[in-house]
């Protein structure tokens, strides 16, 4: 090694903070060789999945791989721990932390009734439309109307009537 030993950062003439992958959180505590095995110090992938794919694949709450979550872990997780992640549903999909739906749900399963695939959802848990004839009548003449949740979302993507 020309910068420092593999046991200690002292004496290093290299500053990882000036790279495209500054060491933060748990990354500061791992050995150099965990990422730079074989003496490769340049051109390594800096995306989370290149090192954490197994973590992503085995996650079950919710099941990231099965539901098609992106492998851009940093959009929900920090570098200190996997715990405490918060998915920003309002920005990514549908407003549930703001607007009409804020505080009206208890768990993901209220809308995502198929836990193996969070891309599937229903509006009918809270909006049962027990009188389907009335709902159909309110949409008479609407192009593409269909009595299903995906169609509701197509016309009401922000939850507005």
Describe what you observe in this structure:
- It comes from Eiseniibacteriota bacterium.
- The chain has 161 residues and is mostly helical.
- The chain folds into three domains: 1-43, no CATH class; 49-103, no CATH class; 104-161, no CATH class.
- The protein has six helices and no strands.
- It has helices spanning 32-35, 49-58, 64-67, 89-92, 132-138, 149-155.
- The longest helix has 10 residues, at 49-58.
- The model has no long low-confidence stretch (mean pLDDT 82).
Instruction: Tell me, rounded to a whole number, the average pLDDT.
Output: 82
Sheet-strand content, in percent, reads under 5%
* Principal-axes shape call: elongated
Largest sheet: none
Brief overview:
With 161 residues, the chain is mostly helical. It has 3 domains: 1-43, no CATH class; 49-103, no CATH class; 104-161, no CATH class. It has helices spanning 32-35, 49-58, 64-67, 89-92, 132-138, 149-155.
Summarize the helices and strands and which ones pair or pack:
Elements: H1 32-35, H2 49-58, H3 64-67, H4 89-92, H5 132-138, H6 149-155
Give the key terms.
161 residues, mainly alpha, 22% helix, elongated, Cytochrome c7-like domain-containing protein
